[in-house]
Structures are given as structure tokens and as C-alpha cells.
Amino acid sequence: MNNTYYSKLIFELSRKGRKGYALPECDVKGYALNELPSKVRRQGMPALPECDELTVVRHYTNSSNNNFGVDTGFYPLGSCTMKYNPKLNEEVVQMSAFQDTHPLQPAETVQGLLALYDNVQQMLCEVTGLSRFTLNPFAGAHGELTGLMTIRAYHEKRGELQRTKVLIPDSAHGTNPASAAVCGLKVVEVKSLADGTIDVDHLQELIAQNKDEVAAMMMTNPNTLGIFERQIPKIAKMVHECGGLMYYDGANLNPMLGVCRPGDMGFDVMHINLHKTFSTPHGGGGPGSGPIGVRKGLEEFLPNPQVLKKANGSYEVRNSDGALGSVSAFLGNYGIVVRAYAYLLSLGRENIAMAGKLSVLNANYIKEQLKAYYKLPIDGLCKHEFVFDGMREEYGGDHHDENSVKTLDVAKRLLDYGYHAPTIYFPLLFHEALMIEPTETESKETLDGFISVMKKIAEEARNDRELLKTAPHNTPIRRLDDVLAVKAALFTYKDLERQDGEKA
Fold first, then answer.
1. For 242-333, where are the alpha helices, taking DSSP H only?
2. Cα(347)–Cα(123) distance, rounded to whole angstroms?
3. Can you say how many angstroms the Cα of residue 196 is from the centroid of all Cα atoms in its chain?
4. What's the pTM value of the predicted model, to 2 decimals?
5. Distance CA 115, CA 127 (A)
6. What is 355-487's CATH superfamily?
7. Which fold has domain 87-346?
8. pLDDT per residue over 420-458, tens digit each?
9. CA 133 to chain centre
């Protein structure tokens, strides 16, 4: 195969004087380049590549073929729920009824859109057992921040300004402590037990030490190890008795759908990732949506603007004086909300629980098939995901041997077989963490193919360790030097020219 268009940058394909398109002369008076004020004119020509149209088409077409996503292959990325996005959702959001509206239109001209927004709010309340939702936040971490701001507003209204500490398990997603810090709160880490669940005795000690300062406790359930936290009623009681609120990180809500509800467990505030649980586009910096819900009594603190249904059945957009303020422009990412609505209606009340149950079934199926090859630090029933701690010693894994097969080697070798690697080295509880989440949308045939490759990689590690150490072998770019990439990052084409003139 000719790899010219795969391996080279568009700037490397550039040849001086080549053109792919010629724009017509501007015939609008006042807009010619020489009539623009000099202060807004570029002083030199932009450093753009010069290529013919065919070169450009081939380059970008072949570059796009290197992208990997749920539409091209299995994406078992633990803790991120990379489930398939049904094309029906895309067809619905492109319907003319949802196009060409403006966020500043009077409410009476967009009653249908506001009804959809309110319907989604009500559905999320039903799924989670909470009282009211806002769809304004743009992402999961944005929802976390908004939820913590809601909690802080609640304490401030009660005059308890000293409540500035958030209890967070050591197995939590990294966004939890980050969101707390951005909100001006202090993080208090709670230890986990050997089985991966929260150490309730340690939590009790921390509450006793910080009783009057606890603002909230953040929890993910199932937790980051894919284990259901069975002590939640006891934990919620402890936190509530000291005056704090319970926050539910909804990143792992997928296996809970239709089975149990955070509101029933004792949680007061939560966020949901529509791009994880409700099958809307995920990643790439957007689009996204991280709605937050609250229990009864906290509705007044939700951010502005708010969509509410009036007594006469019509809808209004209003700002509340008691709200924490605004966290986004207008009503969030409406296109994502429409997609989530289509997904919810497609499943319906009768079938939504199947999503959670199948995600649990798929995860346990892979775990049981591979635990003879990869080290399973916590055995037993998992929910939607699980974590291996590297490869078993009989296949070349050894935490104490630098030359042993590492989780990174397994991840790189998977690329040669056409699979996206699972999450690696997270959570930090295990030295060689390999975190797998298949989601409910994958077939048994797909899971069997992945299992077969993972077993084959283990056999390769035992018989030819160097094969894994030098992987990947079949990708356009071979294994990168991660340390060098951090210390000497190259951000532009010109950065590829080293100071001594030698090309990188």
C-alpha cells in the first residue's frame, strides 16, 4: 500500500504554486483587501499548505480512516460507557421542527421545544427518583461543578458558611476532586477496603473530625471498580446526620437503569452524562450534556434559566431569584437533549432496564473468560465494568520486574488487532490497572472476538515478549516515546524542525 497520504502531514505534501481552488474576485464595494483598515490586515501571507484538490481529498479521506470510534469497532473504554449512538437519534434531531430556532425567541413561539425539554426533565426524575432536573450543564464535569455549587448555595442560605469540605473516596473519578476544588471546596479523601468498597469505619472517623465542616460526600455507584456499594443507606445516614448532603456521580449510572434509583438510596444531588447513559455523541471536546437533578427542597437553587410548566399547560422560561446563577448560555446543548429524548422513547419504560442488565451480563462474561490469563484483584460479581491488575505471572506479568509484560504493552498490541484499548492505569488502586467496560450494545460475537484476542495476546506474552514490547506493528505510527512527548511537545509543523536542522 502507498502510505504517502497516511504518513505525511498536509504541509509535507505542499508544493509551492499548487492550487486546488481559485476564489472569484470580490465584487462587493468596501470589502476589497486594500480597502480594509491596515490595523486589521495581515502583514504577510498565511503559512498555508499549497496542494492540488486531489492531494487534499486523498490526504483527509485517508486521515479520517485512521479515526476509531463506536461506529468502526469495539470500544471497551472502562468508566466511559462508549455505547453505540443509534442513527435514529440523528435522524430525529435533524427534523425540520428542531432546526432554525433561536434561543432568544419568545417562549410562545417555541412551545414544542420547551415541552420536549420538560419531558426529558420529567423522565430523568423518574429514572433517578429525584424531584427536578436542569439540562443546562454542557458536560459531566460541568454538571459536577453545578451540583456542588447547588450544595454550596444550600449551605450558604442556611448560614452554614463553614461547610467547605467534601468527602471523596480514593477510587473516585479524577473529576470529583477537581470539581470540588474549582468550587472552592476542600477535599477529604476516604479510604477503600480490600474489596474496593468504601471503608465505612474510616468515613466515620473523618466525619467525627470534620462534623461541622462537611458540605457533602461524593460517591459513584457502582464505583470505579464496577462494584456496587452495599453500605449506601448507612453512609447516607451518617452524612445526613452531620448536616452534609449526598452527591451521586452519575458517570456509572448505565447499569442501574430501571433497576435502582439514586434518589431512593438517599442521594440529594446528582449529575447524569447523557453522552454515556442515554446514548448521545461522546468525546472530542463536545457535544455533551451533564444534567443535574436534586431532591425535593433543593429545586430553588438550580441554575437559571429554568423551564417550567404553568397551570394552563403552557411552558415558560424564567429566572429564579433563589437560583445559584447561570452556568451556561441559555438552555444547554439542546441537540443532545433531543437525541436523549429519542433514545428514552425508543426504549420506553418497559425496556430501559434491559440496558443495565445486559451491560452487567456482558462485563461479567468477559471477566470470567479472561481471569485465568489476567490478574483479577477483586473477584466476584461486578456490574458494568471491572479491573484487571495486569497479566498473570505465568503469562509474563510481574509488578516487581521492569522487563515484565505491562498493561501498556497489552494496550498497544490490541491496536494491531483492530481494537481500541481499554482504560489503562486507572483507577490508581492497582499498579497495572486494565479497566474494561463492554456496554450493553455489543453482541456476543463481538465479545467473543475480543476475548479471543486478549487470550492470544497473553499467549504471545508468554512465548515472545518482545512482540508486545515493540507493539503496535500495523498502525501508521509506531509506539511513541510518551516521556519525550510530554517534555518536548511538538504543537505545530514548524516544531518538527529541530534546532540543528534535522527533521524529527
1. 262-265, 274-277
2. 12
3. 22
4. 0.90
5. 18
6. Aspartate Aminotransferase, domain 1 (3.90.1150.10)
7. Aspartate Aminotransferase; domain 2 (3.40.640)
8. 999 999 988 899 999 999 999 999 999 999 999 999 999
9. 20
